[in-house]
Structures are given as structure tokens and as C-alpha cells.
Amino acid sequence: MKIYMVSACLLGLSTRYDGKSKKNAKVVELCKENICIPFCPEQLGGLSTPRPPCYFVGGEGRDVLAGRAKIVEKESGQDRTMNFLKGAEESLLIAKLTRPDAIILKDGSPSCGVNRIDLKGKKTEGCGVTCALLKKEGYRVKSYG
Prior knowledge:
By secondary structure, the protein is of the alpha/beta class. Helix content is 30%, strand content 24%. The chain contains five helices and eight strands. The protein has helices at 25-32, 41-44, 61-65, 81-98, 129-136, and strands at residues 3-7, 35-39, 54-57, 70-73, 102-106, 116-119, 122-125, 141-144. Strands 2-1-5-8 form a four-stranded parallel β-sheet, with helices on both faces. Strands 3-4 form a two-stranded antiparallel ribbon. Strand 6 (116-119) and strand 7 form a beta hairpin. The two termini are 24 Å apart.
């Protein structure tokens, strides 16, 4: 039996910015035979559900960690970088406590994106803040969704 940390929305929890989930049958099936720890970095960072959608300005997750980019709300432009950084740090703490074999994230998210993100309103290659921090710390990260 393996241990996985999993983006909560992939397990059917309504944690996405729009208050919905992105339930993934493969991930749910995987969790029937393994230990899965659901988490949502954006909620851990203090953001509500639902919440305004956000996107990157000036780079992607690695750039946010380095202080070269930020994350803002699409409509208002309000800076939410600190929320995303806090959520990434809290997610890292969970990983350190649980020592998962892998972490399964929802692609496309400003926190969990593994291969793609939203940069100034355009889908582009890159990773989210939480993904970037977990990878930097040596965790194995996979994407679904």
C-alpha cells in the first residue's frame, strides 16, 4: 500500500475556485487501494471557496518562489501571492509529516499546475506555486486533469 497526497478536487471535493470539483475516476480508483491524503493549497493559504479566479503575472511558480512573479485575481487585480505561498508551505508541511510516495496534483491550477498554468489569462507551459515548492524539495509529483 502506498501513500499519496492528492489535490482534493480530484477526489470529488468541492474545493476549486468555482466551488466545484474535478473528480477523476482514475485517482478515485487509486485511492481505494492506497492511503490518500486530500489537500487544497489555496484553502490552506486562507482563500475561500468559492473564490475569484487567479493568474500569474511575470512568470510561473518557480518565479513566485524566487520573488520575480506574483499571482493576482483576474477581475480585481488584487495580489494573492502571499496566500499561494502560505498554501504551498502548508502543503509542504503535510508532505513532510506524511512522507508520501507521490503527490497527485490538478494540472492548470496556479497552485497545483504541473505542466501548464494560466499566465495573464493565457494557458501556457509552467508549474504552480505548490508544485514548484514540492518539486524543489524533492517530492515526486504527477498531474491529472
